[in-house]
Amino acid sequence: MAKRNIPLRWDRKMQQRLARGEAAALGELYDRYASLVHGLAHRVLADERAADRLTRDVFAHVWEHPDAYDPRQGPLRTWIATLTHRFAVQRLRATGTAALARGGPGTAEELETRVRQAAVAARADYIVQSMPAPLRAALELAYFQRRDYRQTAADLGVTEDEARRRLRLGLQLLSTARDAATAAPESPGAPPRYGGAA
């Protein structure tokens, strides 16, 4: 229990420092989470410059609204990922809608399908990055190296039952990415649900 409180203590202190206007705190936060924010933004927007701009927007939002984060609701990392996801989906939807209004190719339904697929992919990326290392290692062996559970067990030095358990848990976590999108398509104002995967 004490180990779990250490990150939340850091999160609370970081929020307090941001609320006091400590520029150094923003720099530390940026150093810690910029790659997460940029990666999620790029996954949704599929554009490097747009991801760069969105990364700046997310950290500007955190700087301007540090009290919007509630440590009782979960880790700061999850809150920042949620903001990034929401802003990126809104941006993708807005640019797609503007393109349609100018007579661009496609339909509103195709745009919503694209937005939903990008949201699911970004959530899946976040889940994989956030899952415990043993689960991530098992999934990477099975998916990227095409190992079955026996080969995964041998590669990881664990029993076959343990390899099956890790793969099953990893896949169950990943399935929540799609479940969340199909259960409740994201509206522009609704934050995505990242749960406790952080």
UniProtKB/TrEMBL annotation:
Keywords: Sigma factor, Transcription, Transcription regulation
RNA polymerase sigma-70 region domain: residues covered: 29-95
UniProt cross-references to InterPro entries, sorted A to Z: RNA_pol_sigma-70-like (IPR039425), RNA_pol_sigma-70_dom (IPR014284), RNA_pol_sigma70_r2 (IPR007627), RNA_pol_sigma70_r4_t2 (IPR013249), RNA_pol_sigma_r2 (IPR013325), RNA_pol_sigma_r3/r4-like (IPR013324), WH-like_DNA-bd_sf (IPR036388)
Region (Disordered): 178-198
The UniProt record lists the keyword tRNA processing: no
RNA polymerase sigma factor 70 region 4 type domain span: 127-173
One family name in Pfam for this protein: Sigma70_r4_2
Family: Belongs to the sigma-70 factor family. ECF subfamily.
Stated name of the protein: Sigma-70 family RNA polymerase sigma factor
Source organism phylogeny: Bacteria, Bacillati, Actinomycetota, Actinomycetes, Kitasatosporales
